Amino acid sequence: MTEFAFKIDLNVLNHLGLGLYSSTPAVLTEIIANAYDAEATEVTISIDKTQHIITITDNGHGMSEDDLQNKFLNVGYARRNFSNYTFTGKRRVMGRKGIGKLAMFSLADVVNISTRQDGKEALGVSVNVPDLKNTINKHQEYKLNSVTPSNKLNGSHGTVIELSELNKTTTSATESNLKLRLARRFSIIGNNAALPFNIYIDGEKVTLADRGFHEDVQFFWSFDGTEADENLRLCKNLAVDKDTKVQRVMQLDSSVTSDAELSLRGYIASVTKPKQLKEKETNINQISIFANGRVFQEDVLPILSNSDHFNSYLVGEIHADFLDQDDVDRATASREAIKQNDPKFMGLISHLRTQMQKVASAWDEWRKALGYENLPDKNPFVEEWLNTLIDKKDRKSAEKLIMSVYNNQFSSDQKQNDEYKKDLYRSTIIGFEKLKAKKQLAKLETISSVTSPEFQAIFQSLDDMEETYYWDITNNRLHIIEKFQKIVDDKELEKVAQEYLFQHLWLLDPTWDRIKSPAVMEVTLTDYLKKKCPDSTGARLDIAYRNSAGRQIIIELKRPGKTNIKFHDLLEQADKYNTAITEYLKAHPDIYSGSGLAPIDICLLLEEDIIKEEKHRRMLNEAQARIITYSGLIHNAKRIYQEYLWAHQEASKIEQLVQKI
Fold first, then answer.
1. Integer Cα distance of 597 and 581 in angstroms
2. Quick check: 264 and 320 in contact, CB under 8 A?
3. How far is residue 35's CA from residue 158's CA, in Å, rounded to a whole number?
4. How many CB atoms lie within 10 A of CB 646?
5. For residue 161, what are the β-bridge partners?
6. What was the pLDDT predicted at 166?
7. Strand 551-558 vs strand 108-116: parallel, antiparallel, or unpaired?
8. What is the pLDDT of residues 37-82, one digit of tens each?
9. Alpha helices for 248-391 (secondary structure H)
């Protein structure tokens, strides 16, 4: 048997490197393209995840000894120097540089090649990649090992390439992921009755439907051609005009210039939700450029449009065969992209940008015209709320607002975007119900978006927004009250009382606001009171000064569980606080201004009410002090807010709906 050897221009090989291709789909693309150029009608890929072996079998015309040595193993052999078409002239060849064969050496440490031509003996050779690299480093010629041809070479002609000793991540790619990626890299699969071409992965046929987005396509823009027609037929859920019932499909200009040869085929499509393009095992939110049936640049979307919102809905396939049908080699070394400064490519991009403006305009118009009833993914809780609106006019107005939320994109992160929309749905429902209650829904007739200044202005003109959101405030406060109610341990109660009471004065009195953070004056006076008025009872847990609702508030927490506190000690303490705070504020007019000092409230929080006689209560009142027990605080606060909720059951129903969103 003839001894075979690589003939390698070492300078070229060292420049390109054997690690030119980094992904399994990219490597398989090169091997499949070679099979296509060999006029194969079938390519079968089998993946052994246990042994980490990938086998690619084709039924092309195979190779003779001369073909194997002087074409396949001759790095840099460019078949287009001899013809732009395959052996029978039926196909335009995909290969150009003659370096795609190096792709297989970037994945495997051992590559076995078996091939047979009609009427000739089968050939088998093996490449040990580490040995090949070592030989190249020594500037020596690498001799291939002869092996027994694969038993998978069972036809009269064809080629089998076995990639073994792969890294584990190479074979971890699932069958569905590979089908998706390869379906996205070739447009010639199964579409030529005269010379069909099909790819199989572990027995499963790869089809256009494996691209994984057709069922989610909402709108479609066509550049004409077989590719556009075949993909359009797979889009079964296209939106329709609600009046004419015509599908939302638009024709785009396929002529790049007045030169008839510079024309496009293909399509651009948009899906209902961006996450539908990203939930797959690989991101398919791309517009790809194809030439001669295979992907030429996987994604040009970032250079066509600078709208992250609009872009995130798009997928497309643009066929520009003119980029690969002259003597200019526009592909980068890796065959994964196009040289960006090429005049024809620049002209193509310029034309596509113009067409993208038409796409964006139609997309915006069609989305707005969809109508709520045509939404494919209604929020069930928003739908539940809409169903409470009996008046058809009210419902129509509400649907208009909901659509304005639906059509907005607030973040490129889908999870974050969904949360933003939920928040906006909630506030929109609350706002709508408020206007409905005030019989002011007519104000919404001129509103097109809930994010518009006009919508915000409606609420700026309403002077009782607190009432609108009071059910929400009430519910939050009840949660805090319940937290107190569940505590039975004294030490835990101390901790929670200190954490919440000073910042949530409404627990003591509903008319007092919640304090977000104490002002400097409040911190100063709190420290002053601690020093000026030492606790004579020995039961003080903490003390704080607050200023709220026009009142001076002193809160003293006695330790839960302390029951031996004397009334006269408590009264004396209250008098000290009253005197100290009055003297301090009079002595510091720079931090207090006004015609007179604001009323003082001294709240003494105890385990139990120690007052036995009514005259003692009057004495405390004269000292502007009162006793509040931990249990009484919880009971009274809950009663006040619970009564409000019971009195507003309609608002509660809306609350329940809003909370579900």
1. 10
2. yes
3. 9
4. 9
5. 56, 113
6. 84
7. unpaired
8. 999 999 999 998 888 899 999 999 999 999 888 888 877 666 666 6
9. 275-278, 301-304, 308-311, 343-369, 380-386
Token duo for residue 278: 């990203």
Mean pLDDT value of segment 226-239: 93
On the CB side of 307, how many CA atoms lie within 13 Å of its CA?
15
For residues 371 and 245, the answer to whether their CB atoms sit within 8 Å is no
Name the token pair of 311: 């872009």
Amino acid of residue 167: N
What span, in angstroms and rounded, lies between the C-alpha atoms of 321 and 264?
Answer: 8
Question: What is the C-alpha separation between 270 and 249, in angstroms, rounded?
Answer: 11
- Closest C-alpha to 31, from 186, 167, 176, 210: 186
Q: Which two tokens stand for residue 77?
A: 């052999």
Assess contact for 623 and 602: CB atoms under 8 A.
yes
- What is the Cα 460 distance to its own chain's centre? 33
Length of the chain: 661
Strands 123-128 and 145-146: antiparallel
Task: Calculate the alpha carbon distances from 226 to 215, 260, 293 in Å.
Answer: 19, 18, 12
Position with higher pLDDT, 354 vs 369: 354
For 368, 396, 398, 455, 498, the CA distances from 392, given in Å and listed in that order, are: 20, 6, 10, 21, 52
Q: Are 157 and 48 in contact (CB under 8 A)?
A: no
Chain centroid, CA 516 distance in Å: 33
3-state secondary structure of 143: strand
- Among residues 203, 218, 208, 199, the alpha carbon closest in space to that of 180 is found at 208
Q: Give the C-alpha separation, 317 to 289, whole Å.
A: 6
Whether the predicted model's global pTM rises above the 0.70 cut: no
């038409």: which residue's tokens?
358
Residue spans of alpha helices (H) in 325-379: 343-369
SS3 418: helix
* Contacts (Cβ under 8 Å, ≥6 apart) of 647: none
Which residues, other chains included, contact 175 with Cβ-Cβ below 8 Å and sequence gap of 6+?
47, 201, 202, 204
Residue type at 184 in one-letter notation: R
Interatomic CA distance for residues 225 and 56, integer angstroms: 31
**Six token digits for residue 90:** 């039926």
Q: How is residue 128 written in tokens?
A: 């040990």
User: φ and ψ at 389, to 5 degrees?
Assistant: -90, 105
